[in-house]
Amino acid sequence: MALIEDIRRRILTLDGAMGTMLLAEGVTGCLELANVEKPEVVKRVHRAYLEAGADIITTSTTCADALCLAQYGLAERSREIARAGAELARSVADEFSTTLHKRYVAGSVGPTSRNLTLANDTTPEAVAEAYAAVVAGLIEGGVDMILIETAMDAKNVTIAIEECRKIDKNIPIVVSAVLSRIAGRVASGATIEKFLEDIPMDEVCAVGFNCSNGVKAAEASLKVLSAATDKPLIFYPAAGQPVQAANKFAKEMEAIARAGLVNIIGGCCGTTPSHIEYVAKVAARWRPRKIVK
User: Fold this and answer.
1) Which of 18, 84, 92, 113 measures 20 to 30 Å from 104, CA to CA?
2) Calpha distance 291→149 (Å, rounded)
């Protein structure tokens, strides 16, 4: 598979924040609904990231599951919205793809609005149904991989992976967790090692972190993760508060790349095409983390 080969061959650049970019474009309310109602705006954001040098663009579907959409009265449209988001990203990625440089689409699957470990107002079956709809829409829309991102709860992640495999046995699955402010732990409080133990890692092609509190705050945790797994690593942190300048953000990311810790890098909350332009230059300068298997 081309994606897996590329992950081994070079550091791939993921895009940056979608939500803040849509807000800057004047989108309000349910941002995921823009996939249906304002497709040209969504495509404009995707193009901006590809022009900046992104190898992978992420669908605008992080909150496209029924549990998140319920607050807008849109729960029944989850699959439709996810499919539309995937089709938009696919069409733009294909515009930029060449024989020598393929662009990929990551289907974003967020944590939903419930963490099963803590929630007392839902069931595993309801969460599974929510994941199934959004994953089905993403795969129907033509994504190259499923990105289970902003993950906090291993139970949610496990169900998301299980539902994905019911629909597609082979599509690559990437899991990206949110870190706690305590080094070596994910947001749920579990250690990184425990989080990995509690999810079906045999089904995961890459694992890592997103969002969190900037680049430097995650460096120690990345080293823990690197020691705990031989999988490719993904890392796309937030730009921080206040938002870190693109060149400074990339300089800190370069230390991570130089250390051989990553295979995919990009940006999360607050990052822009300018940040990704700098990150793409970093990715081009360094070799990816070595994959044994």
Assistant:
1) 113
2) 22
